[in-house]
Amino acid sequence: MYIPRVLRPPKKSFFLLGPRGTGKSTWLRATFPDAHTIDLLSEEIYQRLLASPAVFGAELRALRPGSWVIIDEVQRLPNLLNEVHKAIEEQQLRFVLCGSSARKLKRSGVNLLGGRALHRSMHPFVPEELGARFDLEAALQYGLLPIVWASEEPAEALRAYTRIYLKEEIKAEALVRNLPGFARFLPIAALFHGQVANISNVAREAGVARTTASGYFEILEETLVCFRIPGYEAKLRVRERKLPKWYWCDPGVARAMKHSTLGDPAPEERGALFEGLVAQLIRAYRDYRGLCDECYYWAPAGRFQTEVDFLLQRDGEFVAIEAKSGLRFAEGWCRGLRAVSKLEGLRRRLLVYPVGPRLVTHDGIEVLPLVDFANLMAREEVWL
What we know:
Helices cover 40% and strands 17% of the residues. Strand 10 (308-314) and strand 11 form a beta hairpin. The longest helix has 23 residues, at 267-289. By secondary structure, it is an alpha/beta fold.
């Protein structure tokens, strides 16, 4: 059964990027049922166009002006963008350039389109899309990737996801020279979900050079399975840390990459998994609805127990958000939100926890269960 997504298509050509398994192809079939589709996952099509890119141009010239064309897994043949550029200019064709990796596009001419194509992203499900079917505990255990969520065996689907990622995203695209080293790196990197990663320690544990480990983190980001949130920097009386925090794109993927048993999350896992879930929802609504211009974390130097998980910035104003996985509100959770209260332009302070009543502290901190926070983003009311 197809579940409608929050993402709405633009009226002109666009790149659609997102991790494997987020439902890009399913959404494209539902949204553009009459589009001319070129699926580069098909080995026959890939080999034909690899051998003769001119065939692609001839195929496009046979289409009516204004037609939509979908190129799936476009990163496999970035040189096709030359013909795409020409077809946009000469035939007014409209393209959806879909892929699960930005790495080859960045290195092979994505800028050839010179602003003629917009950029859109597809993320795992958000509660708005699932409605009453959203289950927080299942989300923390298995994640919200459509390919996993729809499976009758979600744990096995996640294990298969890690194998496919190594085989089709990393090995097939020749993104690393040392595949065994990268495979050793993955579970170690997964331990840093929601943390500042110590590259030297990761490199030592994986048995690779520090520069190699740093390059591996870039690959995770460019293949869209990880993202970073930078530390907020401002000319305040305290100096903020500048190293980014790393998050995996989905709680289930983070657990699968570190070879977890995928049973109920252990108590020591829940904090990072819940924070990561809040991070991915913020990121999704930033891309889908323009929730914010930038997202940071806030942590003054020298005060290691004081931090705010997320600081949203828009038009010079801020919303501070703290994520806590405990089931019963505690005043100590507000330490970071109280420390950031003097930040100029701070509009609102929100504390998000799994379930429970909505509360407001004596100094105006709003305490929300996750579903209520997700509804705020869905209704575009975070800044109200």
